[in-house]
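Re: the request from the purification team.
They wanted to know what the chain is likely to look like in 3D before they choose a buffer screen. I agreed to run a prediction and write the result into the notebook, where they can find it.
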Amino acid sequence: MQLIPEWMSNIHPLIIHFPIALLVIAVTADFAGLILKRYLWIKPAALWLYIFGALGTIGAYLTGKQAADIVYFPPSSYPVISTHADLALYTMLFFGIYALVRLFIFWKKWDRSTVVSVILFIIAAAGLGLVQQTAEHGGELVFRYGVGTRTQTKTTEKTSEATTPATKINISENGSWAWQAGKDAALTLRQNFKLIQGDWQNVVLQVVHDKDGNPSLSIQTDKKEPFIFSFGPNLKNVQITAYVNLSGFKGRFFLAHHISNPSTYDFLAVENGEARLERMKNGAVDIFDTGITPKSVWLTLKAVSSSGHYRGYINDKLITHGHGSDLKPGTTGFAFLGTGSIRISSINVISLDKKAPMMNMDQQNMSHGNTDEGHSHQ
């Protein structure tokens, strides 16, 4: 008999209820033991319930991590999954440590003291708060966002990108923005994006079309120097997606977010078949995770930063996943270091916060002084 049905991608939904039930029953047994002291079997029974419940939280956490790596998340759900994952970790650690302490106290027979028993019960009851919050966020992922269900699809995000007007940058009220290549993509990029590192004179911008007539922006350079392009307001939790062709480029291309200056930002980099999730902070690089870049002429690169969780997707598949402390909010964009030609069809940035600051006047006009340095080649 097949353990996991073919329509279910992960065993996580099958096991999460067991540790919840075991821990709730364990706390209930503890309470009963305080009242029914003559039933000596209740305390050891509660102990074993805590042990098996703690082991269950380990299984739930590990299968949950696996599930998060293979299912699709709509952009608005990333803050919830990050919180859910953090709470699941805290719950596992809490009851893992509690079960060990409880076992030690039982071995020392300290739990025969009423005061000790009451304290242990209060601690465990408080731990159920973690279980409740973890379960609530997990339920929200399923019932509000449809994560892991057959009714949940990727069409919402793709439709958003597809309906973005060509050759324009749309900025939403919460700071989200989208750019899509059109007939004047070179001019649009030059007039709106800020080149915070590099020189406009060392790049050639040109609109090119594929055999079906679809436009993309070609960025060419023969100078092996770093270029960093940024746009938009400062965002905290963010998703940035770009559709790019790097077949004519030799070097590193990366999506960047939380850009404070040329030496501080987070990014997803691809180079020579490898993907890296990294942070540049005050010029020092910290690698969160690495993975393999799938072989494809056109790549859909997506970097997500949400409450200390950093994920890198390529062609809708999770490639890298790292953790760290958040940088202060910053702008978003892309960067590269190498020579050749990069083709970009679209860039889509989604603020994962309910409210984000709008662009100030300096940001809205940040590149007006650049348009006089030369002309875009179309």
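For the purification team: The mean pLDDT is 84.
Please add any questions underneath this entry.
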